Amino acid sequence: MYTCVLNPNITDVEYTRAFNDSWSFMSEQFGGATQESARDNEKHKLSLQNTLVTYEDGYLLSIYGADAYNNKVTLTSAFYGYDLNGSKNYLYNNDWLSKIQDFLNTSYDNVFWGTVFGSSIDNHVIGRKSSIEAYFGEATEDKVVETDGTSYNVLIYPTLTE
Fold this sequence. Notes:
By secondary structure, the chain is an alpha+beta fold. It contains five helices and seven strands. Helices cover 36% and strands 34% of the residues. It has a seven-stranded mixed beta sheet with strand order 1-2-3-4-5-7-6, sandwiched between helices. Helix 3 links the parallel strand 4 and strand 5. The mean pLDDT is 84.
């Protein structure tokens, strides 16, 4: 069973495992920083943000770092650990995705994804775009934005209304 929790106490072991499990897919985003340095910097960054964590039967699967303000959540980082079977298949499981979306729908009007163009997480989000749109509907914004010489794919979806 999947659960989604805002700002839980993530243990150092859980955080390190999720970060390390993600490293090979995202290391290019850290400009040559060592894995240890990037892990420490991201942990500090997460301590200043909200974290949205998903579990499967109490086992940490993923961590999103997010800024939340004006009834909008901006997902700024994502770490996907392997599940107990050593797989990341849950990333393509609509039950996992809908658990996160259900949580977001209860608290926010908009969900903003901004991923570094061509990065592994960007490719993952683009690969899941049809699943996300099947849940949220069509994006209200879908564009590439340049910021300080870096290109970001920006997707904004309204959360569901009852």
